[in-house]
Amino acid sequence: MIFDSHVHTKFSADSEMQLADAVKAAKEKGIGLVLTEHLDFDYPGDLIFRFNPAAYFAEYGAQRSGAALRLGVEMGMQACCVEKNKKFIGQENFDMVIGSVHLLEGKDIYYPEFYKGRKKTEVYNLYFTEMAKLLRMHSFIDVLGHIDYIARYAPYSDSNLQYNAFAEPIDALLKIAVAQGNVLELSTRRLTDRLALKTLVPIYKRYYELGGRYVTIGSDAHVPEAVGGNFIAAKELCTLIGLKIVSFYQRKMEVAVK
Q1: What is the span of the domain harbouring residue 58?
Q2: Helix residue ranges, H only, 90-230
Q3: For 110-119, how does the pLDDT look when each residue is reduced to its tens digit (9 = 90+)?
Q4: What is the CATH number of the domain that holds 217?
Q5: pTM above the 0.90 mark?
Q6: Strand partners, 157
């Protein structure tokens, strides 16, 4: 079974999705779920991106199974929080740990204020360079989350990631992921946009050329309607490049059986 390996329910500060609704949506699409609730220590905004892992497992643990529902976490990577992040995931038997970059210079890159007066070249080089540094510090994660996250929100006329424009920092990042055995996530959030899809292909091809063979696919769903979104396009991209779709159960990688 293929899993949507990036889903947020009510345990994430920015989601109100109920588990029953997420499970129903996944069943309708014939896929499994990996819940990946938000953990961002020292987040600078009003939302508190933390949850109680014991409460999480107490409420969802009875429905957890390798076949359909897995319990993970999406960990915001910051240099100040490495030890806290490592301690957090040791509290419960998580199935999968995603490491993501949501903040740069202590600011949330979701908000347009971060980009004011800054050129795309400067910001994107900073983004990839910082992600590489943080990934090396968080070698204990399983999956590097949504490499194109910044392209969702950057307010430039063309926010897409052009590999040729940022080849050096992207290569540095991918080499670290491959060397450490961190799987790359293919986020399906933007795959309805054909240009976004086209610009992602060279990045994932380069990942393959450097020795990467596996990806998770995840919708980053916060509402039931988004669960399993754009999976057909994701599977086509993986087939084109030769990447194998995987998920994790009890921190062990499993290749999807289609």
Answers
A1: 3-255
A2: 120-137, 149-153, 167-180, 194-209
A3: 999 999 999 9
A4: 3.20.20.140
A5: yes
A6: none
